[in-house]
Amino acid sequence: MTSRQAYAPSLRLENVTVIRGNRLVFNNLNLSVAAGELLWVRGANGCGKSTLFRVIAGLLGAFTGKVHADGKLALADENLALDPNLTVGAALHFWAQMDGATLADCDAALAAMDLLSLADIPVRYLSTGQRKRAAIARVLASGSAIWLLDEPYNGLDSASSAHLDKAILSHIAKGGIVLLAAHQSPSINVSDSLILDAKGRSV
Ligand SMILES: Nc1ncnc2c1ncn2[C@@H]1O[C@H](COP(=O)(O)OP(=O)(O)OP(=O)(O)O)[C@@H](O)[C@H]1O
């Protein structure tokens, strides 16, 4: 969270039911996350972690129920939202401008994910881990209060994981919210965890 958001964000899901195809992914899911909290979202493959993030981000509709998000949201998932034909710096700046961010915000995000030396190469040349870092940098540069990070540690080396840990800790220390989907326990302390099961319930 940056000075662009000086209030306390919050996130609440109220009786959210989601159906994909003929599969009930969630049934009456309730969730509340307050400013300064890091929520670890966990569960087996296919339990609905990515679906949950897409519903919260407004990319997928809920069948019933409501998402109440007080604060700007940013999602980093497997779909890299950066134009492959632009340089990393230009692609990041494109999105950051839409979020009211400055070039300095972009540079700070690139520096946070140790990407400054890659700012001038096209996004399509990035390796898997570098793409992941660029996706996270986009979230950082957005100045969003609520971060939705879907498997952000996948493909990161230990130095990059440490950069991400630091960015998350800094964000929640400033009162931001982070939802982190991961199979492995994060190395930083989480405020709470949401465990999803295969029958559309939180357990
Ligand atoms: N477009 C779709 N149409 C129908 N079903 C879908 C669609 N996309 C995903 N699903 C189903 O929704 C369920 C939840 O998928 P989701 O990707 O949210 O799981 P996940 O917990 O993120 O899994 P993983 O740990 O493997 O990343 C799965 O059973 C999946 O097959």
TrEMBL record:
The residues covered by the ABC transporter domain are 11-203
Pfam (any one): ABC_tran
PROSITE patterns recorded for this chain? Answer: ABC_TRANSPORTER_2
Q: Name one GO biological process term.
A: cytochrome complex assembly
Name one molecular function that GO assigns to this entry.
transmembrane transporter activity
Q: Which UniProt keywords apply?
A: ATP-binding, Cytochrome c-type biogenesis, Membrane, Nucleotide-binding, Translocase, Transport
The UniProt entry's coiled-coil ranges are none
Q: Which Gene3D superfamilies match?
A: P-loop containing nucleotide triphosphate hydrolases
Q: What protein is this chain from?
A: Heme ABC exporter ATP-binding protein CcmA
